[in-house]
Amino acid sequence: MNAIISLCHFCELHGPQVLFCTQPHHPLERTSSSESDDTVTGVEGGATRRVKSPSVSSDPLSPTSTGPKNDSCEGCSSVRTGFISKDEEAQVHYISCKQPFDREVYSMSRQACIRSLSGEVCPGRDGPIFFGNEQLGHVLSYTFHIKDSQARGFQKKYSILVVMMDKIYLLNSWPFLVPHLKIVIDHIEKKANIVYEREEIKCPQRAHRLQSSIHPVPLIHHKPARSLVELTDDKHIFKLLHLAFVWILKACANRITETLLEGPPTEDSIIDMEKQEETEEGFCLLFSRKIGTDDVEEAGHGEEAVNIPPRGGEEEEEEEDGDGPIIKNTRHAMKILGQEKFHILAHHVVIGNQIIVRGAPKSLVKSFLSALKPLLPKGCCRMIGYSNMYEESWRCNFLGLTPDVTIPKHIMSNEAFVLLDITPLSEEEAPDFPADIDSLNRYSFNMASPSKLSEKTPSVLQKMKMTLRNENLTQEVVEQYLICLKEEWMNKVKVLFKFTKAGGSRTEEDTKKLLQVVGANPEDTPILKFWMEGLSVQYRNHIFTASKSQH
After folding, report:
1. Closest to 249 measured CA to CA, from 459, 474, 45, 388
2. Residue 137 in 3-state DSSP?
3. CA–CA separation, 6 and 160 (whole Å)
4. pLDDT at 543
5. Hey, what CATH topology would domain 284-463 get?
6. Phi then psi for 527, rounded to 5 degrees?
7. 443 DSSP β-pair partners
8. Which portions of the sequence form the region Disordered (predicted)?
9. Within its chain, how far is the Cα of 232 from the centroid?
């Protein structure tokens, strides 16, 4: 706990004074004076070193110094040496002495002492009170009185202060600090009451003062002020206070800990976990398919060709894609195609139509498909990066083809797809740019599709386009925004899935009302239906199990 606990009293000669304080120091914060003296025993939590208190320092202070002054008042004295307790586990040293070493901390403690004993008033004569500000720190002050047969009013005013900069932490620690400070105060008061009663029996001061009222003498000149050691008749009182303050600081720090709260996993993260299957021996089985040595044989032939690529990606490959131009990210793809062509292509992507990119080199085709994947949830992405034969849409919705592959006629007439041909420009058509500046300028991108899109743009696609067009946003911000946007719409998909698949028979009118509730428009319906494929198996099983238990 990054705080300082101080014991203060109101001196009849010097006013409010700090008597004793305990504060934590990390190893790098230890002062040179705490290393210089001999070791003594008797402090809980490790070895204890004698620490020279600034109140008796032999080094003279400058005229402008704000440090503590040296005085000879017995009532303001506490310890000429202090104590250090070492917490080896937390690597913290707790140092107790008369005044704080740091001048700024001393100034904060001094101001808190003055306010607690002269300015701040709590309900009742004794008790806790909270005050402070951002500059001088926040203070929990517990004021109390100790009986003293030789003091004015037969009592002396004390307070225990807890000073720290974190207001919220201190207020949250109030229920812990106040009861434990009260235990320390009760212990001091009990000892002082025993001494007071013993002195009253021996020499009643009230009667003695009444008899001497004819020739009054100022009390402060009559008898010197007494220290807390004399008032409690306990020469180890400050050692006990050190132990108590150290325990309070350590226990309060352990009581409130910072916990990192994480939300539920996203559907994309669940999809990633579902790619792994834990065996009985505790090993994780990764599903993959070994690829042939031929660069263009990614789809393969025969028995392996019927395997469906895993959701969220493509088959693992061992060979390198080779050198060549690449599309860096989604924003880069939009700049290469132009906003109009990219809008059409992205519309096909988000509603689930098959995206076919045909051309060479392989690195450019694969990187273009990879740049489009962030527009979809991982569970909706099935990709074959580069193949020498056409693959059906039920196998993949992202397909890369070599330039010589022809799309079958029945696919051209019936399937919902968009074909993007990447062809190199001739020397006459290519712009006169060096190859190392922008090699993508030497390729043409031609797009064709037999499918007709709705005139209204889906809501999620509009937001994606606005983000990609905003040049003030960095690529990292764009990526995080797309993740949040997809998760927002996956939550709507979950509601629609539970409503339609697991909620029994629903009319079209009921579905329209639900879309209005979740904030979806009619043009968003194809997206919601397609994105249902991105739901994890875990969520589907949970919904179906809950639905069966209710019927």
Report:
1. 45
2. strand
3. 6
4. 79
5. Rossmann fold (3.40.50)
6. -65, -45
7. 424
8. 28-75, 298-326
9. 48
Q: What is the pLDDT of residue 128?
A: 93
Query: 153: helix, coil or strand?
Result: helix
402, 296 Cβ separation under 8 angstroms: yes
Tokens of 384: 């074959």
Contact (CB, 8 A) for 48 and 242: no
Cα separation, 83 vs 43, in Å, equals: 8
Q: Residue 116 and residue 130: Cα distance in Å, rounded? A: 9
Nearest to 246 by CA among 154, 308, 180, 299: 180
Which tokens belong to 263? 């939300």
The C-alpha atoms of residue 456 and residue 321 are separated, in whole angstroms, by: 38
Tokens of 175: 């229920």
CB atoms closer than 10 angstroms to residue 236: 12
In 251-397, where do the E strands start and end? 276-278, 284-286, 354-359, 383-387
14 by Cβ neighbours in 10 Å (0-12 / 13-18 / 19+) ranks as: middle
Q: 326-356 burial, b if ≥16 CB within 10 A, otherwise e?
A: bbeebbbbbebbeeebbbebbbbbbbbbbbb
> What is the number of other CB atoms lying within 10 angstroms of the CB of residue 156?
23
Q: What is the pTM of this model?
A: 0.53
Specify the pLDDT at position 477.
Answer: 94
Pairing type for strands 354-359 and 398-401 reads: parallel
Q: How far apart are CA 199 and CA 151, in angstroms?
A: 13
Instruction: Write down how long the chain is.
Output: 551
Distance CA 533, CA 524 (A): 15
Assess contact for 365 and 429: CB atoms under 8 A: no
C-alpha to C-alpha distance for 297 and 401, rounded to whole angstroms: 10
**Series of mean pLDDT values for 10-residue runs along the chain (551 residues):** 89 86 76 41 40 38 42 70 86 89 89 88 84 91 89 85 92 93 94 88 65 53 72 90 94 80 75 63 52 39 48 51 80 92 94 93 92 92 92 91 91 86 78 55 89 89 94 93 93 88 76 88 91 85 75 56
CA 319/CA 313 separation, integer angstroms = 17
Residue 418's contacts (CB-CB under 8 Å, 6 or more residues apart) are 344, 345, 348, 353, 354, 355, 356, 447, 448, 449, 451
Identify whether the C-beta of residue 169 lies closer than 8 Å to the C-beta of residue 256. Answer: yes
Which residue bears the tokens 């001061």?
205
State the distance between the two ends of the chain, measured CA to CA, in whole angstroms: 55
271 contacts: CB under 8 Å, gap ≥ 6: 311, 312, 377, 378, 379, 534, 536
Strand partners, 140: 130, 162
Residue 361: cis peptide before it, omega within 30 degrees of 0: yes
Number of helices (H), then strands (E), belonging to the chain: the values are: 17, 17
Give dist(CA 461, CA 376) in Å, integer: 11
- The domain locations on the chain are 4-59+68-255, 284-463, 473-550
Supply 321's token pair.
């894609």
8 A C-beta contact, residue 451 and residue 526: no
* C-beta separation of 248 from 49 below 8 A: no
Q: Which two tokens stand for residue 453?
A: 């899109």
